[in-house]
Amino acid sequence: MAAVNGYQGNTPADPPATNGSKQPVPSTKTVDSQSVLKRLQSELMGLMMGGDPGISAFPEEDNIFCWKGTITGSKETVFEGTEYRLSLSFSNDYPFKPPKVKFETCCFHPNVDVYGNICLDILQDKWSSAYDVRTILLSIQSLLGEPNISSPLNTQAAQLWSNQEEYKKMVEKLYKPLNA
Amino acid sequence: MISDSITNASATAAPSAKDFGKKKRTNRSAKLKQSKLGLRREQWLSQVAMANKGDKEEIDSNRKPRSENPDQRDRPVENLDGLSREAEDNSGTHHHESFIESLSNSPNSILSGMNSIPNFSSSSSSGSGGSCSGNITEEEDPDDDGCLDDWEAIADALAADDDKHEKENPPESCEEHASIKQSASPRASVSGSNVAIRDVKPAMSRKQKSNQAWRPDDKLRPQGLPNLEKQRSFPVMNLHYSSVAVPSSCPICYEDLDLTDSNFLPCPCGFRLCLFCHKTICDGDGRCPGCRKPYERNTIKVEASVQGCGLTIRLARSSSMFCRS
């Protein structure tokens, strides 16, 4: 898009062609964003009515395309008693493309890097438009307790995973409560 | 092309349509006709059951003040010819009563009995003085409101309808059959022989009784039938569609699924979605959101031809739209 704009600015002879290719984009965009809006509003309703324990999500103040979610560590895992904040950013292609999901709270986990990026197949190539915010958060919650050690983003966490007692100490040491 | 094959299939599936020679009649009108016929059959059955009951209890004052059963029973057989004038008005019901009697005599072969209606007309005429067989077709046509042209069509429609009604309300029909069987059992042994003529006399009186009981229904029928049809036919359709669990809204865009969408099953895994979302996915990676397997264009057509009713023609069009795009 940026390249097209720059090209258009440099050579004014070409605009008819670029306009022709550009014109359908805004119209489909509005249609898409309306359907995305409807979908996200319905999901929000479902989340608020459903009351799943351990997960919650809500849009940021004035932008329904950016949500903040929280996940509570499951019981009988090393993450028990911890709570993590995540950000979810939806594109106009949602739900045909997955949202971008990141940990905002530091999470010591084999499949989460230091920037909060998550390595989870359903957020990449295994995404299905049948998934929604609720299933994403539930999947991440179960990923906390059952990491995929074979393809780690955080190799230190992957190595330490075998020693659950030490791992729990590390989690508690690195954990920063949400309010802090 | 697809719709052509569907109409051909429906024509072969419902032989009654072929009899009418009107190709434009769809399965729906045939179904309506069948339910109409089924309704009439129930009316006949209840009529006969009522008449038999009245005959047993020897109550004839409230039904018909004119004719008295004992008198008619004592009449000689030759009077049947005189009665036949009255029976002419009524030969439709007359015929059907004997038809039902033989049904109840052989309750296990209902379908075969219905398919051999021409034989019935001959047997009933031999039983009741030979005045009936000529009048049946005359009398039946006004009764049908012009919706049925010949007996073979009725037979086909009844045969096709019978299964449906047996499933639809088994206790009612069983009750009716039981009562008819009860009333018919005394003369079940003598059916078809000359001795039966004696038994025909009470049967005739019953027919007259049913004649007069039938009349008010006859006048009321044009108004009463359509409502009953709706009550009969639409719950069946609803049952048919509710048996398959169809979500009320598309799981992708959360918009309500309309009738076309809810009959749209693009993937064998059973995951349903609206046509718009399906198109969006097909423009993208083309994988089913339910099972992640790529959509097969052919499965849509198979689904369309399997169902074989008016809805699927619309479906076939929409799927062909997808193939074009």
Automatic annotation (TrEMBL), chain A:
It holds the Pfam family UQ_con. Residues 18-33 have a biased composition (Polar residues). Residues 1-33 are annotated as: Disordered. Residues 35-180 form the UBC core domain. GO terms for molecular function: ATP binding; ubiquitin conjugating enzyme activity. SUPFAM superfamilies: UBC-like. CDD domains: UBCc_UBE2C. Keywords: ATP-binding, Nucleotide-binding, Transferase, Ubl conjugation pathway. InterPro entries: Ub_conjugating_enzyme, UBC, UBQ-conjugating_AS, UBQ-conjugating_enzyme/RWD. The active site is at C119. Gene3D superfamilies: Ubiquitin Conjugating Enzyme (3.10.110.10). Its EC number is 2.3.2.23. Belongs to the ubiquitin-conjugating enzyme family. PANTHER family: UBIQUITIN-CONJUGATING ENZYME E2 (PTHR24067). This is E2 ubiquitin-conjugating enzyme. It comes from Arabis nemorensis.
From TrEMBL, chain B:
Keywords: Metal-binding, Zinc, Zinc-finger. One of its GO terms (biological process) is protein ubiquitination. This is RING-type domain-containing protein. Residues 53-99, 162-179 have a biased composition (Basic and acidic residues). The lineage of its organism: Eukaryota, Viridiplantae, Streptophyta, Embryophyta, Tracheophyta. Residues 137-149 have a biased composition (Acidic residues). It holds the Pfam family zf-RING_4. One of its GO terms (cellular component) is CCR4-NOT complex. Residues 1-13, 101-120, 180-194 have a biased composition (Polar residues). Residues 250-292 form the RING-type domain. InterPro entries: Mot2, NOT4_mRING-HC-C4C4, Znf_RING, Znf_RING/FYVE/PHD. The keyword Nucleotide-binding does not apply. GO terms for molecular function: ubiquitin-protein transferase activity; zinc ion binding. SUPFAM superfamilies: RING/U-box. CDD domains: mRING-HC-C4C4_CNOT4. Residues 1-149, 162-223 are annotated as: Disordered. Signal peptide: none annotated. Residues 21-34 have a biased composition (Basic residues). It comes from the Eukaryota.
